[in-house]
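ok trying this again, last paste got cut off
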Amino acid sequence: MKMASKIFVISGPSGAGKTSILQRLFRRKFVRKNFSKSISYTTRPRRPGERGGRDYFFTSRQDFLKLMKKDFFLETQKVLDDYYGTPYVLYRQACRRKKDLILCIDVKGGKYLKNTFKKDKIISVFIAPPQEKELCRRMKKRGETKNTICKRIKLAKKELAYMRYYDYIVVNDQIEESVDNLEAILRAEQLRRCR
Protein backbone atom coordinates (compact mmCIF):
# COMPACT_ATOMS: atom_id res chain seq x y z
CA MET A 1 0.00 0.00 0.00
CA LYS A 2 1.47 3.39 -1.00
CA MET A 3 1.35 5.85 1.89
CA ALA A 4 2.20 9.54 1.67
CA SER A 5 2.06 10.44 5.34
CA LYS A 6 3.70 8.71 8.26
CA ILE A 7 1.60 7.15 10.97
CA PHE A 8 2.70 7.63 14.58
CA VAL A 9 1.27 4.88 16.76
CA ILE A 10 0.91 5.79 20.44
CA SER A 11 0.11 2.80 22.67
CA GLY A 12 0.35 1.69 26.25
CA PRO A 13 -1.72 0.13 28.99
CA SER A 14 -4.95 1.67 30.22
CA GLY A 15 -4.11 4.32 32.81
CA ALA A 16 -0.63 5.08 31.42
CA GLY A 17 -1.79 8.61 30.50
CA LYS A 18 -1.93 8.42 26.70
CA THR A 19 -5.05 10.57 26.36
CA SER A 20 -3.80 13.26 28.76
CA ILE A 21 -0.43 13.44 26.98
CA LEU A 22 -2.05 13.76 23.54
CA GLN A 23 -4.47 16.45 24.71
CA ARG A 24 -1.54 18.57 25.93
CA LEU A 25 0.58 17.71 22.90
CA PHE A 26 -2.05 19.08 20.50
CA ARG A 27 -2.05 22.43 22.31
CA ARG A 28 1.43 22.98 20.87
CA LYS A 29 1.73 24.95 17.63
CA PHE A 30 4.34 22.69 16.01
CA VAL A 31 2.16 19.63 16.56
CA ARG A 32 -1.09 21.22 15.32
CA LYS A 33 0.71 22.49 12.20
CA ASN A 34 2.31 19.17 11.24
CA PHE A 35 0.08 16.42 12.62
CA SER A 36 -3.52 15.23 12.61
CA LYS A 37 -4.97 13.21 15.48
CA SER A 38 -7.06 10.19 14.66
CA ILE A 39 -10.19 9.55 16.70
CA SER A 40 -11.08 5.89 17.14
CA TYR A 41 -14.50 4.30 16.95
CA THR A 42 -15.45 2.23 19.98
CA THR A 43 -18.32 0.17 21.28
CA ARG A 44 -17.44 0.80 24.93
CA PRO A 45 -19.63 3.12 27.01
CA ARG A 46 -18.40 6.67 27.38
CA ARG A 47 -16.74 7.64 30.66
CA PRO A 48 -17.64 10.79 32.61
CA GLY A 49 -16.33 13.86 30.79
CA GLU A 50 -15.87 12.13 27.43
CA ARG A 51 -17.48 13.60 24.32
CA GLY A 52 -18.40 11.84 21.11
CA GLY A 53 -16.35 13.12 18.17
CA ARG A 54 -13.66 14.52 20.47
CA ASP A 55 -12.52 11.51 22.51
CA TYR A 56 -14.06 8.67 20.50
CA PHE A 57 -16.82 8.02 18.02
CA PHE A 58 -19.13 5.96 20.23
CA THR A 59 -21.17 3.40 18.34
CA SER A 60 -23.11 0.19 18.88
CA ARG A 61 -21.49 -3.20 18.41
CA GLN A 62 -23.89 -3.92 15.54
CA ASP A 63 -22.93 -0.72 13.66
CA PHE A 64 -19.23 -1.27 14.34
CA LEU A 65 -19.35 -4.78 12.86
CA LYS A 66 -21.17 -3.45 9.78
CA LEU A 67 -18.42 -0.86 9.26
CA MET A 68 -15.79 -3.59 9.67
CA LYS A 69 -17.37 -5.59 6.84
CA LYS A 70 -17.19 -2.50 4.59
CA ASP A 71 -13.38 -2.14 5.19
CA PHE A 72 -14.03 1.19 6.88
CA PHE A 73 -11.12 0.75 9.31
CA LEU A 74 -7.35 0.95 8.96
CA GLU A 75 -7.12 -1.45 11.91
CA THR A 76 -9.48 -2.90 14.52
CA GLN A 77 -9.01 -4.70 17.81
CA LYS A 78 -11.20 -6.21 20.47
CA VAL A 79 -10.10 -5.10 23.95
CA LEU A 80 -11.79 -6.87 26.83
CA ASP A 81 -15.44 -6.91 25.68
CA ASP A 82 -15.36 -3.88 23.37
CA TYR A 83 -14.23 -3.11 19.84
CA TYR A 84 -11.97 -0.24 18.78
CA GLY A 85 -11.11 0.84 15.25
CA THR A 86 -9.22 3.54 13.36
CA PRO A 87 -11.28 5.03 10.49
CA TYR A 88 -9.40 4.98 7.19
CA VAL A 89 -10.87 8.34 6.15
CA LEU A 90 -8.81 10.20 8.78
CA TYR A 91 -5.60 8.85 7.26
CA ARG A 92 -6.68 9.98 3.78
CA GLN A 93 -7.52 13.46 5.18
CA ALA A 94 -4.06 13.69 6.78
CA CYS A 95 -2.46 12.81 3.42
CA ARG A 96 -4.47 15.50 1.62
CA ARG A 97 -3.41 18.07 4.22
CA LYS A 98 0.23 16.88 3.99
CA LYS A 99 0.29 16.04 7.68
CA ASP A 100 1.37 12.96 9.56
CA LEU A 101 -1.27 11.07 11.53
CA ILE A 102 -1.10 10.26 15.25
CA LEU A 103 -3.08 7.23 16.41
CA CYS A 104 -3.75 6.35 20.03
CA ILE A 105 -4.43 2.62 19.76
CA ASP A 106 -4.17 -0.74 21.49
CA VAL A 107 -0.80 -2.54 21.50
CA LYS A 108 -2.13 -5.29 19.22
CA GLY A 109 -3.34 -2.68 16.73
CA GLY A 110 0.09 -1.04 16.86
CA LYS A 111 1.84 -4.35 16.19
CA TYR A 112 -0.59 -5.10 13.35
CA LEU A 113 0.19 -1.78 11.62
CA LYS A 114 3.95 -2.28 12.03
CA ASN A 115 3.65 -5.71 10.41
CA THR A 116 1.33 -4.49 7.64
CA PHE A 117 2.90 -1.29 6.35
CA LYS A 118 6.37 -0.21 5.26
CA LYS A 119 8.77 0.06 8.17
CA ASP A 120 9.66 3.73 7.52
CA LYS A 121 5.99 4.77 7.44
CA ILE A 122 5.03 3.55 10.93
CA ILE A 123 6.71 5.09 13.99
CA SER A 124 5.65 3.59 17.29
CA VAL A 125 5.82 5.08 20.79
CA PHE A 126 4.92 3.13 23.92
CA ILE A 127 3.66 5.17 26.89
CA ALA A 128 4.57 3.32 30.08
CA PRO A 129 3.49 4.04 33.65
CA PRO A 130 6.26 4.75 36.18
CA GLN A 131 5.15 1.73 38.23
CA GLU A 132 2.24 -0.69 38.58
CA LYS A 133 0.96 0.98 41.78
CA GLU A 134 0.54 4.28 39.94
CA LEU A 135 -1.31 2.53 37.13
CA CYS A 136 -3.83 1.11 39.64
CA ARG A 137 -4.29 4.53 41.26
CA ARG A 138 -5.00 6.18 37.89
CA MET A 139 -7.55 3.54 36.93
CA LYS A 140 -9.42 3.94 40.23
CA LYS A 141 -9.72 7.70 39.60
CA ARG A 142 -11.76 6.99 36.45
CA GLY A 143 -14.71 5.74 38.46
CA GLU A 144 -14.91 2.34 36.78
CA THR A 145 -16.24 -0.72 38.60
CA LYS A 146 -13.88 -2.86 40.67
CA ASN A 147 -14.43 -5.75 38.23
CA THR A 148 -13.46 -3.57 35.22
CA ILE A 149 -10.39 -2.24 37.04
CA CYS A 150 -9.26 -5.82 37.83
CA LYS A 151 -9.69 -6.82 34.17
CA ARG A 152 -7.79 -3.73 32.99
CA ILE A 153 -4.90 -4.32 35.41
CA LYS A 154 -4.61 -7.92 34.24
CA LEU A 155 -4.65 -6.71 30.62
CA ALA A 156 -2.10 -3.95 31.40
CA LYS A 157 0.41 -6.56 32.59
CA LYS A 158 0.08 -8.35 29.23
CA GLU A 159 0.31 -5.08 27.28
CA LEU A 160 3.58 -4.12 28.99
CA ALA A 161 5.17 -7.15 27.29
CA TYR A 162 4.60 -5.43 23.91
CA MET A 163 7.08 -2.63 24.76
CA ARG A 164 9.86 -4.46 22.96
CA TYR A 165 8.06 -4.06 19.61
CA TYR A 166 8.04 -0.24 19.83
CA ASP A 167 10.55 2.23 18.40
CA TYR A 168 10.42 4.53 21.45
CA ILE A 169 9.36 4.29 25.09
CA VAL A 170 8.17 7.28 27.11
CA VAL A 171 7.77 6.67 30.85
CA ASN A 172 4.95 8.94 31.99
CA ASP A 173 6.01 10.00 35.47
CA GLN A 174 5.69 13.80 35.06
CA ILE A 175 3.16 14.67 32.35
CA GLU A 176 4.83 17.85 31.01
CA GLU A 177 8.15 16.02 30.69
CA SER A 178 6.37 13.19 28.86
CA VAL A 179 4.77 15.69 26.46
CA ASP A 180 8.21 17.28 25.85
CA ASN A 181 9.72 13.85 25.17
CA LEU A 182 6.97 12.89 22.75
CA GLU A 183 7.26 16.20 20.89
CA ALA A 184 11.04 15.66 20.64
CA ILE A 185 10.38 12.25 19.02
CA LEU A 186 7.96 13.81 16.51
CA ARG A 187 10.46 16.55 15.64
CA ALA A 188 13.32 14.07 15.24
CA GLU A 189 11.29 11.84 12.94
CA GLN A 190 10.26 14.81 10.78
CA LEU A 191 13.90 15.91 10.50
CA ARG A 192 14.88 12.40 9.47
CA ARG A 193 12.42 12.58 6.57
CA CYS A 194 13.96 15.86 5.38
CA ARG A 195 17.41 14.30 4.90
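PB: full thing came through this time. The chain has one domain: 7-194.
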